[in-house]
Amino acid sequence: SQKIEQNSEALNIQEGKTATLTCNYTNYSPAYLQWYRQDPGRGPVFLLLIRENEKEKRKERLKVTFDTTLKQSLFHITASQPADSATYLCALLEYGAGNMLTFGGGTRLMVKP
Amino acid sequence: DAGVIQSPRHEVTEMGQEVTLRCKPISGHNSLFWYRQTMMRGLELLIYFNNNVPIDDSGMPEDRFSAKMPNASFSTLKIQPSEPRDSAVYFCASSLESQGGRGYTFGSGTRLTVV
Predict the structure, then answer these.
(1) If you average pLDDT over residues B28-43, what whole number do you get?
(2) How many helices (H) and strands (E) does chain A have?
(3) pLDDT at position B98, please?
(4) d(CA B29, CA A75)
(5) CA distances, A24 to each of A7, A78, A87, A92, B55 (Å)
(6) Contact A31, A51 (CB under 8 A)
(7) How far apart are CA B75 and CA B47, in angstroms?
């Protein structure tokens, strides 16, 4: 069966450290993968997209990697700040799925001062 | 642009009543999605419209759920009759398919409680 797995346990890190979140998928052929941030009581907000032929993408303090052999994407926040505390969701678009994204369950990140 | 606008923000209703959720997508976006989010199941896609036409409704739980998109600027999700297990946050999202790489824009959601 198809699965997109993110660590359901919260990730607690100290301010200034690098946060690394994992997204693993099974039985998908993704054209690309996206990462979203969701704050309590709000809808998800798009952060970054990485295509299947890209290894790495950066945006300010964010970095995403995509390993189609391992079927995994890693999402890094460097120099983390308490304001980065939120739930982070990965989502993938499979070839032939039109414009339909499938989301993982999300990982909650807590950055402590 | 004001973003994707959903109404109401909160809805509390009694079991058996009809519930209608509303969504105004971003002007110019041609894809619209309804998602449901719960702690247990995360974000689940209910239905996907492209150019106002339903493309995939395989996520609609059962016949009690229906969705319409009469024009490019408005969509509704109706539950009739509602049941306590329908309690969740319902999100509407829109995107421009040709720019799928820009991601979806989500509304703030409607928190539905069925008692």
Answers:
(1) 94
(2) 0, 11
(3) 63
(4) 28
(5) 9, 21, 16, 11, 27
(6) yes
(7) 11
User: What is residue A5's predicted lDDT score, i.e. its pLDDT?
Assistant: 94
Q: How many CA atoms lie within 13 A of A49 on its CB side?
A: 14
Q: What is the pLDDT of residue B102?
A: 76
Residue B88 scores a pLDDT above 90: yes
Cα–Cα distance for residue pair B64/A1, rounded to 1 Å: 27
| Contacts with A101 from chain B: Cβ below 8 Å | 33, 45, 104
Inter-chain touch A98–B55, beta carbons under 8 Å: yes
Yes or no: say if B5 and B23 are a contact pair by the CB < 8 Å rule.
Answer: yes
- Asked whether A5 and A57 are in contact (CB, 8 A), the reply is no
Averaged pLDDT of chain B: 93
Percentage of the residues of chain B whose pLDDT score is greater than 70: 96
B66, pLDDT greater than 90 = yes
pLDDT tens for A84-112 read: 999 999 999 988 777 789 999 999 999 99
Residues 6+ apart with CB under 8 A from B104: A44, A46, A101, B33, B93, B94, B95
The neighbour count for residue B38, using CB atoms within 10 Å, is 13
Query: Is B6:B93 a contact under the CB 8 Å cutoff?
Result: no
Interface test with A, best of B104, B108, B110 (most A CBs within 10 A): B104
How many Å apart are CA A113 and CA A82, to the nearest integer?
6
Smallest Cβ distance to A99: which of B4, B31, B35? Answer: B31
**Which residues on chain B are in Cβ contact (under 8 Å) with A3?**
none
